[in-house]
Design goal:
With about 120 residues, this protein is mainly alpha-helical. It contains five helices and no strands.
Length: about 120
Protein backbone atom coordinates (compact mmCIF):
# COMPACT_ATOMS: atom_id res chain seq x y z
CA UNK A 1 0.00 0.00 0.00
CA UNK A 2 2.41 2.73 1.21
CA UNK A 3 6.16 2.52 0.82
CA UNK A 4 8.12 2.71 4.08
CA UNK A 5 9.36 6.22 3.16
CA UNK A 6 5.85 7.51 2.50
CA UNK A 7 4.59 6.03 5.75
CA UNK A 8 7.52 7.50 7.68
CA UNK A 9 7.00 10.93 6.10
CA UNK A 10 3.32 10.85 7.07
CA UNK A 11 4.25 9.97 10.66
CA UNK A 12 6.66 12.95 10.71
CA UNK A 13 3.90 15.16 9.35
CA UNK A 14 1.53 14.00 12.12
CA UNK A 15 4.23 14.87 14.69
CA UNK A 16 4.70 18.32 13.08
CA UNK A 17 0.98 19.09 13.16
CA UNK A 18 0.76 17.81 16.76
CA UNK A 19 3.79 19.89 17.76
CA UNK A 20 2.26 23.00 16.22
CA UNK A 21 -1.16 22.41 17.76
CA UNK A 22 -0.07 21.43 21.27
CA UNK A 23 2.45 24.26 21.68
CA UNK A 24 0.13 26.86 20.13
CA UNK A 25 -2.62 25.95 22.59
CA UNK A 26 -0.23 26.50 25.50
CA UNK A 27 1.07 29.75 24.01
CA UNK A 28 -2.51 31.00 23.72
CA UNK A 29 -3.06 30.10 27.38
CA UNK A 30 0.15 31.96 28.25
CA UNK A 31 -1.04 35.12 26.47
CA UNK A 32 -4.47 34.87 28.13
CA UNK A 33 -2.84 34.58 31.54
CA UNK A 34 0.01 37.10 31.23
CA UNK A 35 -1.13 39.86 28.94
CA UNK A 36 -2.51 41.01 25.64
CA UNK A 37 0.55 39.83 23.67
CA UNK A 38 3.37 37.29 23.93
CA UNK A 39 5.88 38.56 26.51
CA UNK A 40 9.11 36.71 25.77
CA UNK A 41 10.82 37.96 28.96
CA UNK A 42 7.98 36.58 31.11
CA UNK A 43 8.03 33.33 29.12
CA UNK A 44 11.77 32.89 29.76
CA UNK A 45 11.32 33.80 33.42
CA UNK A 46 8.63 31.13 33.85
CA UNK A 47 10.68 28.58 31.93
CA UNK A 48 13.34 29.01 34.63
CA UNK A 49 11.11 29.32 37.70
CA UNK A 50 12.31 26.11 39.40
CA UNK A 51 14.77 23.24 38.94
CA UNK A 52 12.33 21.11 36.94
CA UNK A 53 11.52 23.96 34.54
CA UNK A 54 15.23 24.85 34.21
CA UNK A 55 16.09 21.21 33.50
CA UNK A 56 13.51 20.94 30.72
CA UNK A 57 14.45 24.34 29.29
CA UNK A 58 18.15 23.53 29.20
CA UNK A 59 17.48 20.05 27.84
CA UNK A 60 15.48 21.57 24.98
CA UNK A 61 18.06 24.32 24.39
CA UNK A 62 21.00 21.91 24.10
CA UNK A 63 19.23 19.18 22.13
CA UNK A 64 17.49 21.67 19.81
CA UNK A 65 20.82 23.40 19.20
CA UNK A 66 22.51 20.15 18.20
CA UNK A 67 19.59 19.03 16.03
CA UNK A 68 19.31 22.46 14.43
CA UNK A 69 22.99 22.35 13.47
CA UNK A 70 22.50 18.89 11.92
CA UNK A 71 19.34 20.05 10.10
CA UNK A 72 21.23 22.98 8.55
CA UNK A 73 24.06 20.75 7.36
CA UNK A 74 21.66 18.06 6.11
CA UNK A 75 19.50 20.59 4.25
CA UNK A 76 22.58 21.91 2.47
CA UNK A 77 23.90 18.41 1.73
CA UNK A 78 20.59 17.28 0.21
CA UNK A 79 20.00 20.65 -1.48
CA UNK A 80 16.61 20.88 0.18
CA UNK A 81 14.33 23.66 -0.96
CA UNK A 82 12.29 25.72 1.48
CA UNK A 83 14.49 25.15 4.54
CA UNK A 84 13.60 28.72 5.46
CA UNK A 85 10.11 27.45 6.39
CA UNK A 86 11.72 25.25 9.04
CA UNK A 87 13.74 28.20 10.35
CA UNK A 88 10.70 30.43 10.49
CA UNK A 89 8.58 27.69 12.05
CA UNK A 90 11.12 27.25 14.82
CA UNK A 91 10.78 30.84 15.96
CA UNK A 92 7.14 31.53 15.14
CA UNK A 93 5.62 28.24 16.27
CA UNK A 94 7.94 25.84 18.10
CA UNK A 95 10.83 23.45 17.70
CA UNK A 96 8.27 20.67 18.35
CA UNK A 97 6.79 21.71 15.00
CA UNK A 98 9.88 22.51 12.97
CA UNK A 99 11.99 19.43 13.77
CA UNK A 100 9.34 16.93 12.59
CA UNK A 101 8.54 19.24 9.66
CA UNK A 102 12.20 19.09 8.66
CA UNK A 103 12.15 15.29 8.90
CA UNK A 104 9.02 15.24 6.70
CA UNK A 105 10.67 17.50 4.11
CA UNK A 106 13.86 15.43 4.28
CA UNK A 107 12.01 12.18 3.58
CA UNK A 108 10.26 13.83 0.64
CA UNK A 109 13.63 15.03 -0.70
CA UNK A 110 15.13 11.56 -0.32
CA UNK A 111 12.19 10.15 -2.31
CA UNK A 112 12.85 12.74 -5.05
CA UNK A 113 16.53 11.78 -5.16
CA UNK A 114 15.66 8.08 -5.37
CA UNK A 115 13.32 8.79 -8.32
CA UNK A 116 16.02 10.83 -10.07
CA UNK A 117 18.51 8.02 -9.52
CA UNK A 118 16.13 5.43 -11.02
CA UNK A 119 15.48 7.62 -14.05
CA UNK A 120 19.19 8.20 -14.68
CA UNK A 121 19.93 4.45 -14.43
CA UNK A 122 17.25 3.56 -16.99
Amino acid sequence: MFSPRILLSLIYLIFAVSGAFLTTIENIHFVQEYGPYFKIDKFIELANVNSAARSISRDLFVSAGAIFLWMSIEARRLQMKNFWIVLLGTFLIAFAFSAPLFLFLRERRLMELEKEEKVSVE
